[in-house]
Structure formats: C-alpha cells, structure tokens
C-alpha cells in the first residue's frame, strides 16, 4: 500500500508532502484508523538509559518537529518516538527550497535550520499525549543565539519539557545552524554539558523524577575527535549518545540531481559511515553509556548491523520516508533475530 501512496507523495514538493503526511497521520490516529497502516512488530524489550522500550526501533528527531503527529507515529509500532528539534522561540528556518529527495540513492538532503513553532507550542501538543510508549524531546538553540550563550537556550527548553519527556536529547550536531557543530568539541562541549547536567540535577530534585539526557553527534569526525567526545560524555555522566546526525560529505551523490545542494545528507549513503562511527564510539566508551544508532537503516540487516557495531537501539528517518511503516517491522525483526542468536550462543 505504501509504495502506491509514495508515488503520489513524491510527485509533490518534498516539504509540502511532508506536511500533508504529518497531517494525515495525525488525523488517522484521532479517527482510530492507524491499524490499517501498521503491521505487528516483534515484542523485543530492551533497557535504554533506565527506560524499557517495547522494541529497540525508534523514530529519529526531525520528522515531527512540533509534536503534531507523534501519537499516530507511535501507533505504527515504533518502540520510541523522538520529537523536535525544538528551540526556545519559534523560528522559520532557512529559505525555501530546503528539502531535497535523491531517489536514485534513497537519500535526502535538508537544510531546514531548526524550523519550528517554539517550545511552548510543542509543549501544548505533548500535553495531549495518548501515545503510551517512550517519548524523547530533542532540543536546540535559536539561530540568532550566540554559540557562547547556547547553554541558556538548551536549559530553557529542558526546563519547559522536563515534566513531559521520558528522555531529552541535546542536538549539537545539525549542520544547518551556523556554529552549532562547534559545541561538539573541547571546552565548548564540556561547558555545555556541565550546564545541562546542573539543570538536569535541579529539575530532578524539583520534579522528584530523573529524566535521562542524551547528546546527538555528527558522523563527520575523525578517530581522535570520536575518542575525545566519548571521554567528555563519560566525564559529565551523560546518559546516552545518539550517533549519528546527517553528514556534510556528499561525495557519494555529487553527480546526482540535487546532490550538490547545501545541507545534511541522510539515507543509504550514510549507512556505512554511521555504523563505523558507532563501532569506534562503542570501543571508546567501553560500555559506559548506551548508543542509539541512526543513519541509513532500510531493513532488518542494516538495523542489526548497528546493534552489532555497539548500539543498544536504533532510530529511523529516511528509511521511513522511502519504505513506510514496513521498515519498522523489518528493522525490529532483524534486531530480534540477532538478540535470539546471541542468547543461543551464550547458552552453548
């Protein structure tokens, strides 16, 4: 069914089809029609950052920036759903056009620029939560907030969403907000994480509830940078890391239509690189904190490969755009088979 629907959606401007899809998913959930689109997903509970996921396949941030369709998206079988990235104040994002499909590569390039309606709008939507699964909220800084003041924006968002989030992600790796990726390195990362952990401790005391904090990193790091980030995350006792965001390396698609567009590349071209970053990050972390693997997951094998590389759970974005709800079931089944094989191996 989705392949026929995709033809119609792909005939439209990418951003317009995105908004139509989110509206349709939201409406279908409110009308109780999601069972028409979802398929059974294997029950495969995993522990992640102190949370129990019914299965380890989540929706990555970026698809539902304003929490407009998360109830419906959750009903499709995702083990967890992450909304955002949200900023303290509403902002329009970068000029249009800013979203491009590359069907030949099953890829997407975006330079959205954290377009969103602001944290207060998202919060009102999250308060209408019917989704019973794990909900993550991804936070960032406004484009006009100086990088040296970025921690203020992250802390504002954390304070507002804390009571309604199951976990919070600090996005420091989007390539579409000037200077944002500088926050991943050295003293900038350390200072930001220090501020976020202080805010987390304060909010945990106020709410008598500990909400885990994850950090989302980029794939465009060399080995030394990966090792340094891993060390800093451990030093500040961050609860988890999401690897990876989109890549600025478009060498694999540069000869395709839209392949030279500015922005971050996601989809199949990112599969190998994100898995390699996960593998190196896992080695550097030595099991000290869990990894959520993202990047080019289109089926059960690519999902399982992220787990083999060291991830505890995975998230899907472009694979969902290209393959629809079926990819959720396939990814979950692939990981469940891997888990069963590991149990049998240990039993020998």
Structural summary, described in words:
The protein has helices at 2-10, 14-30, 70-75, 119-126, 150-161, 186-207, 223-235, 271-285, 300-309, 318-323, 326-347; strands at residues 46-48, 51-53, 57-59, 80-86, 99-102, 107-110, 134-139, 167-171, 213-217, 240-243, 264-267, 291-294, 313-316. The protein is an alpha/beta fold. It has an eight-stranded parallel beta barrel, surrounded by five helices. It has a three-stranded antiparallel sheet with strand order 5-6-11, with no helix packed on it. The longest helix is centred in the middle third of the chain and has 22 residues, at 186-207. The mean pLDDT is 94.
The portion of residues assigned to helices is 40-55%
DSSP strand count: 13
Task: Tell me the fraction of residues in β-strands, as a range.
Answer: 15-25%
Largest sheet: 8 strands, parallel, barrel
Summarize this structure as a short list of keywords or feature phrases.
348 residues; alpha/beta; eight-stranded parallel β-barrel; three-stranded antiparallel beta sheet; 11 helices; 40% helix; globular
Give a quick summary of the entry.
The protein is an alpha/beta fold and 348 residues long. It is 40% helix and 16% strand.
């Amino acid at each position: 069914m989705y392949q026929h629907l995709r033809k119609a959606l792909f005939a439209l401007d990418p951003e317009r089809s995105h908004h139509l899809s989110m509206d349709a998913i939201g409406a279908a959930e409110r009308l109780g029609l999601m069972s028409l689109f979802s398929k059974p997903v294997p029950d495969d509970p995993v522990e992640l950052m102190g949370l129990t996921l019914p299965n380890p396949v989540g929706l990555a941030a970026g698809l539902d920036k304003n929490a407009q369709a998360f109830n419906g998206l959750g009903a499709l079988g995702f083990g967890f759903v992450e909304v955002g990235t949200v900023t303290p104040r509403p902002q329009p994002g970068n000029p249009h056009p800013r979203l491009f499909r590359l069907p030949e590569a099953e890829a997407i390039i975006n330079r959205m620029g954290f377009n969103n309606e602001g944290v207060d709008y998202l919060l009102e939507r999250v308060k209408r939560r019917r989704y019973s699964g794990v909900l993550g909220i991804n936070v960032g800084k406004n484009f006009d907030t100086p990088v040296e003041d970025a921690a203020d924006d992250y802390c504002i968002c954390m304070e507002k969403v804390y009571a309604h989030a199951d976990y919070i992600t600090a996005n420091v790796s989007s390539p579409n907000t000037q200077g944002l990726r500088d926050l991943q390195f050295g003293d900038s990362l350390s200072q930001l994480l220090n501020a976020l952990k202080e805010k987390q401790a304060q909010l945990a005391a106020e709410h008598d509830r500990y909400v885990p904090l994850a950090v989302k990193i980029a794939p465009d790091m060399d080995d030394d940078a990966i090792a340094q980030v891993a060390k800093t995350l451990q030093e500040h006792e961050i609860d988890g890391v999401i690897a990876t965001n989109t890549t600025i390396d478009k060498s694999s698609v540069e000869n395709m239509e839209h392949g030279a567009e500015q922005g971050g590349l996601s989809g199949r071209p990112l599969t190998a690189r994100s898995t390699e970053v996960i593998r190196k990050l896992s080695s550097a972390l030595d099991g000290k904190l869990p990894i959520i693997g993202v990047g080019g997951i289109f089926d059960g094998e690519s999902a399982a490969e992220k787990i083999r590389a060291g991830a505890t759970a995975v998230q899907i974005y472009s694979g969902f755009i290209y393959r629809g709800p079926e990819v959720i079931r396939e990814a979950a089944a692939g990981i469940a088979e891997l888990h069963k094989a590991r149990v049998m191996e240990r039993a020998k």
